[in-house]
Amino acid sequence: MIWDWAFAFEILPVLGRAAIVTIEATLLGFIIAALLGLVLAVVRIAVPWTGWTISVLVELIRSTPLLIQIFFLYFVLPKFGVVLDAFTAGVLAIGIHYAAYCSEVYRAGFDNIHRGQWEAAIALNLSSWTTFKDIIIPQAIPPIVPALGNYLVALFKETPLLSAIAVLELMQTAKIIGSETFRYTEPITLVGLFFLAMSLVSAALIRSLEGVLNRRTMR
Amino acid sequence: MTEQPMVRFENVSKRYGALTVLDGLDLEIKRGEKVSVIGPSGSGKTTVLRMLMTLETINDGVIWVEGEPLTHMHRNGKLVPADINHIRKIRAKIGMVFQSFNLFPHMTAMANCIEAPITVLGMKRADAEARAADLLEMVGLGQKKGHYPSQLSGGQQQRVAIARALAMRPKIMLFDEVTSALDPELVGEVLEVIRKLGREHDLTMLMVTHQMGFAKEFSDRVCFFHAGKICEQGPPKELFGAPKNERTQQFLRAVLEAG
């Protein structure tokens, strides 16, 4: 038999610790992506002359592989005096990469806000900060939660790329177990199952969040 | 010395590319005056309101509010285009009600009415709520404070929008075809609120309207716009009773026929 239950149970605790690193990287990466993406989208509207620069930046990030960006932050930035540890560099790269995607999602959300909402905000003399914070963002976010959620799951599934710069997340840990014991079947399968389970759970969570948000805005 | 006009358009032009929407507009509105703007669509009448609310920039001229420039500011003895701080200071005197209401759909009627007083005027929540409650009462919606716009009829939404604009204590109120999006049976309740405002408040009002009957009865002066210019203006009795300009006559005839 190629599947050894005893071995699988033996490596579970190690993989469990690595899973925590994966989840940390996912959450931190997504927080960066969601916030930076929002900042990019807001700045593009609030400061019109930045539009072109931000478009180029977003296109540049979306059109190059994430792996290259990870390598860039980890191996190239130190040449300019910026030394980041592997986890930080990896999380930053993932966050920035997905921020580019998220900013487009936010932009679509903002585009969907009726022009009259902006005009009412002007007529009430609201500052641009208040307009975004109280009027535009609360209306723009609920419809784009599913799209943002998809990027959360996509980002999560890309965290194994961090193994390329030796972050001890799930994939890297599985590879180490494999190379030390010459048994790849159990660690790789368990890692795959973990990703499957987590993806399904997150998808379900996003769906219920979507439901809550829809109920609130349909009032 | 005569009193400063509340609003003065001085040779104001608005162009979209090759299209001239307003051509050298000169218009003065006195404090407390109620002015109706009528005219065919595309005549630039809504643009007048939108420029005054700073929703549109202007290409030429200066708009003055109580003797201060709105679109410009004084710097080294010259008039230069206004920055956002100056614009916000002057436009605080102006409120606007829109054809499509433009209430904030994620906020209750009450929240719609206290948002700007709290964030812009810095009012305490309790004070803002008390004032908003009075205003909602005044527009006949005292019982609907906790309702969301989607739970209100068009006429009710528009009355909330009027209360929301009044909560900022404007000196000038702009009404942009405020009954055009309403079912006929809801027009009356909104006009009644505007009448009441006219009676009880010393507001300067400028309204674009298709309700000729209301313009006739309510306004001190009616301006007929055609092709980006004021074609004819005067007291409603004269303009509706004995229009001098041929275009005004044509327009009024067409409107009357349409019923």
Automatic annotation (TrEMBL), chain A:
The keyword Transport applies. GO terms for cellular component: ATP-binding cassette (ABC) transporter complex. It is found in: Cell inner membrane; Cell membrane. InterPro entries: AA_ABC_transptr_permease_3TM, ArtM/GltK/GlnP/TcyL/YhdX-like, Ectoine_EhuD, MetI-like, MetI-like_sf. Its main location: membrane. Keywords: Amino-acid transport, Cell membrane, Membrane, Transmembrane, Transmembrane helix, Transport. The chain crosses the membrane at residues 25-46, 52-75, 188-209. One of its GO terms (biological process) is amino acid transport. The keyword Transmembrane helix applies. GO terms for molecular function: transmembrane transporter activity. It is a multi-pass membrane protein. Residues 15-206 form the ABC transmembrane type-1 domain. SUPFAM superfamilies: MetI-like. Signal peptide: none annotated. Belongs to the binding-protein-dependent transport system permease family. HisMQ subfamily. This is Putative amino-acid ABC transporter permease protein y4tG. It comes from Mesorhizobium metallidurans STM 2683.
Automatic annotation (TrEMBL), chain B:
InterPro entries: AAA+_ATPase (IPR003593), ABC_ATPase_HisP-typ (IPR030679), ABC_transporter-like_ATP-bd (IPR003439), ABC_transporter-like_CS (IPR017871), Ectoine_EhuA (IPR014343), MetN_ABC_transporter-like (IPR050086), P-loop_NTPase (IPR027417). It is a peripheral membrane protein. It comes from Mesorhizobium metallidurans STM 2683. Belongs to the ABC transporter superfamily. The keyword Nucleotide-binding applies. Residues 7-252 form the ABC transporter domain. Its main location: membrane. This is Putative transporter subunit: ATP-binding component of ABC superfamily transporter. Keywords: Amino-acid transport, ATP-binding, Cell membrane, Membrane, Nucleotide-binding, Transport. It is found in: Cell membrane. GO terms for molecular function: ABC-type amino acid transporter activity; ATP binding; ATP hydrolysis activity. GO terms for cellular component: plasma membrane.
